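explain this:

___
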Amino acid sequence: MSDQPARPQPTTETNRVAVRVTKDALRQIRGGHPWVFDASIVKAGAGAPGDLAVIFDDDRRFAAIGLWDPDSAIPVKVLHHGEPASIDRAFWAGRIAAALVRRAELAASKSTTGYRLIHGENDGLPGVAVDRYADTLVMKMYSAAWFCHAELICDVLAEQMTVDRIVVRLSRTLQLLPTHLLADGRPVLDGATILGVPGPNRVEFIEGGLSFEADTVDGQKTGFFLDQRDNRQRVRARAAGRRVLDVFSCTGGFSVNAAAGGAELVHSVDISQGALDAAKRNMARNTDRPNVAACRHELTTGDAMAVMHRMGDARRLFDMVIVDPPSFASRRSQVAGALESYTRLTELALGLLVSGGTLVQASCSSHVTAEEFTAVVREGAANAGVELTDVVTTGHGIDHPVGFAQGAYLKAIYARAI
């Protein structure tokens, strides 16, 4: 593999790759599925990442068109199926405009300036996500197919909304690739500003009237986990007078909301000292609120299960325990292990809850279904000798729409333990 920077192909319909797929894949494509896996491709021409892959049926009739990503396990990211369509500036503008309409309610809110603008496949733009933090946008790319389209997408975003800058973030896989260049010769580097003037790494934004920071250059994902916004506000509504344990707290989204809701004590636990430092700063950002100023905030750095074990041995008890771990199953083969981990976390969490206390537990793995997750939480409760009542389940917010089965990754359970 060459170490020389790869110059992008021009964004044009002249660069096309003819693709033939299996009958089963063709059926799924016509049903709206946005992925074509390598094993489903019968025949394909040569092409560079970002070229347009045109899928034909056995009678040479057009079936779909997508972005070509030859080195990926998903070589075709489907953009459109059905009748032929031109993939040009007007196409991108239409897709982005539709995504903005879905978020119109959030855009009109003065109390929230941080949310997802483009949710990849679920907004018809597979392999890319764009998050808004006030007037800074962060584009996260998960496919090399987007390198040669990045500038055009940024231009269209800037045409349709107020933007000071757009920062690009790359998936771990893309960071390992040889450097790619934009059309003007600039390298596509993780954390680089590709539109506008670079600003501070930490960008302040508002969520539900509370102030937070997003580290748009070095933070996880795009700088903050925006998908839990609605669940954080549900915790806030239930936190008055409670002692709250926030496990896998990251930068303190749940912790700050619990404090704002009137929690007496919030204890944040995370393995990352940097994340807890950010959680401390986020709490301090909101001490102009009497509830936050009055709340006692404790922090512990360490492995979640180990910390929970120690708390159990010390007979620490809380009125609410929040368990929001990272994905335990990035592949289907990891699901069994993930379910075991969720079960054990439930047992540990319930051992730290007072009778009548509230368990809040979440999963962000698309490979674990809502039914599987609910079942193992109940199994963990049974193992702990605890009955769960008043069970409520939640899913995605309006800025994280679900456009296909695998797009439904987020699920959370609220329950009272007796």
